[in-house]
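Sample 1 of the test manifest.
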Amino acid sequence: MGGAQLFGIFLFAAIVLLTMYITYWASKRNRSTSEFYAAGRSLSGWQNGLAIAGDYLSAASFLGIAGLVALNGYDGFMYAVGWLMGYIVVLYIVAEPLRNSGKYTMADVLAYRLKAVPVRTTAALVTLVVSTFYMVAQMVGAGSIIQLLVGIPYELAVIIIGCLMVIYVVFGGMLATSWVQIVKAVLLMSGTILIVLILAIMFGFNPSRLFGEVIAQNGIEYLQPGKLYKNPIDLVSLGIALILGTAGLPHILIRFYTVPTAQEARKSVIWAMILIGIFYVLITFVGFGAAVLVGPDAIREADKGGNMAAPLLAQYLGGGPGSIGGEMFMAAIAAVAFATIVAVVAGLVIAASGAFAHDIYTNVIKKGQADEKQQFRVARYTALVVGALSIIIGILAKGQNVAYLVALAFAVAASANLPTLIFSIYWKRFNTAGAVAGMLVGMVTAVALVMLGPSVMGENAVFPLANPGIISVPIGFLTSFIVTLVTRPESMEDKYDELFVKANTGMGAEM
Amino acid sequence: MERYDQIANSEEFKQLRRSKMMFVWPVVLIFIAYYLTLPILAGYAKPLMNSFVIGNVTFGYLYGMLCYIVAWALAFWYVAKAKQFDEKAKALKEKFSRKGA
């Protein structure tokens, strides 16, 4: 065994030990449902901002986008831009009202003024669907990436990641998950900054020189749109899902319950936007750098999808294949990718557990009558089951092309969750029928269009676009709107006043 | 909980609500439309996107980078605005908690 391989194993062990210590520390404080779902609302704005970045920046962003840029140039860069933009919607219209009027889940806000049983059931269903799509994409990606980077079999990689996330969540709850995400955000940002810093020194801190080299090596079309996306409407459709979907992602929304006030929630979005934005700007340089220094052929040879672009670039910058520096840098980047994956899946497990345990069990089955001890126990059992199911689904989905599932999760979030969330907070006349119909129709439309589209049906696609957002988002909004208007107003208007005052002033917010 | 509808019906709250909605919604809608111009230009204005502006840096790259800068600028603008809303909300809370007591 070479020195670099030992170094890699040492790094993996260090990350696992550190996160286990965090979990041990958090487990002593993880004694109630509020601790389990919301970290006791104890995080500060910047801590939650780092955790949001850790929750959001997945391996698909780190390895996938670097590869997309390395193989397709400008189109990959343009794809990366969309991922930050949704946070404006989060910041301006969702984060603070959500923090002020909810408790543990997205459905809390809807159930405040609408009929609790139907809206909670539907919202929980949508949350489970969104989180499952996201989770499957993460697990399959994780399995193949770890296999590629470390050389352990796919199934074993999925089981290791699954077990780690279950331990973090079941024992350490949201507090452990948040700190795992914070550690991951620091590692991921440091790794990316280090790569880009070395690149910047090589190219004299001059992007123009890097782009000149891209033209010389890869051809001018690398700097031009159209290499990957032939149909502009498809890209607009993806853009709609990204910009509106972020504010409907359950695992991002629940992060705002971990801070004590709306002001801290606001600060956390600002921190998250700074980190996430810098990350996406830098990751495109990693991609262009890999295109020039490693070359698309070598990247494709290592992995058809381009996932090895960033690790191979690190290897080159460290001194090249076979050199101690190169192998060590690559092992470090592999360890960062590993930390990235476990942090994201842990966040998803909490979101899914909340939807089942808090919405369905406590508030629908038990009608809010479950005592604190029961709620806490059910929450942790649910997390255990969700984790086990994720491992099984991850193994079953081996070898499937699941990259489109992340975009689909955003599309469902934008088409089903966002309309209901916005109308609940901002529209007095909105009613339960509109909410339930909007969520179901929005979700079914998004899923059906993807099933009929080229991602699933290939050349025989009935629906021409890979991304359903341009159709399914308007349908989600319109269904909510029209169904509300054709059904009777609800007699809960005073509840709406209460919600709106709370949402805008923070009076009576959960502490 | 009549305190809440007292607040909801007060002139001060209605004014807070109006100023907030008049700020938040136009900004968000314009921003969404603005961001969607990026893929539209990339699809239908290739010569513009492909033109070099500074050295080997294309217009398309700068336009994409501008999206990040606009998003960050809007984030800080929101923080500045939200501080004003916070103050109004605080005044409201104080007024009505005194009345309620």
